[in-house]
Amino acid sequence: MAATGAGSPSRLVQYVVVRSDLVHKLSWPLGAVITQACHAATAAIHLHYGDPDTQRYLAELDSMHKVVLGAPDEAALSSLSENLSQAGVAHKLWIEQPENIPTCLALKPCPKETVQPLLRKFKLFK
């Protein structure tokens, strides 16, 4: 996709933040963790389906952009969710049931520059 210029809409990104300790310390299978991220991303889209940014994101089906970041543990994920809520950033904290374990969160699609400062301390998921 070409760089956005003045007056053109900004690039929409859906950020997903996954607890990396699920794989590296708690030995969850990678497939199970990927499933959690899929659940959160789908739920965030569903919850904000009528939002103009979500509609524009979905309209660009073949060029959707997601970024998957890693949170070191449950405390970091919960803290991020609180910070996003305080900043008015729409997201879905996915809590795996019936275990009641927060595993990841996904933001609704939004312009990268509006949320990147809140996610700066999180690195790409590995």
Pairing-aware structural class of the strands and helices? Answer: alpha+beta
* Major beta sheet summary: 6 strands, mixed
Element pattern in H and E? EHHHEHEEEHE
Calculate the mean pLDDT score and round it: 93
Give the C-alpha Rg. Answer: 15 Å
Helix content: 40-55%
**Per the principal axes of the C-alpha atoms, what is the gross shape?**
globular
DSSP, total strands: 6
Q: Give the low-confidence spans.
A: 1-5
Distance between the termini: 25 Å
Residue share in β-strands: 15-25%
Features:
six-stranded mixed β-sheet; globular; disordered N terminus; 5 helices; 126 residues
Task: Give the topology, please.
Elements (H helix, E strand, L loop, with lengths): L11 E8 L1 H4 L5 H18 L4 H8 L6 E6 L2 H13 L4 E6 L4 E7 L2 E2 H8 L3 E2 L2
Parallel strand pairs: 1-2
Antiparallel strand pairs: 1-4, 1-5, 2-6, 3-4
Descriptive overview:
This protein is an alpha+beta fold. The chain is 40% helix and 25% strand. It is built from five helices and six strands. Strands 1, 2, 3, 4, 5 and 6 form a six-stranded mixed beta sheet that branches. Strand 3 and strand 4 (101-107) form a beta hairpin. The protein starts with 11 loop residues before the first strand and ends with a strand.
Summarize the structure.
40% of the residues lie in helices and 25% in strands. With 126 residues, the chain is α+β, with helices and mostly antiparallel strands.
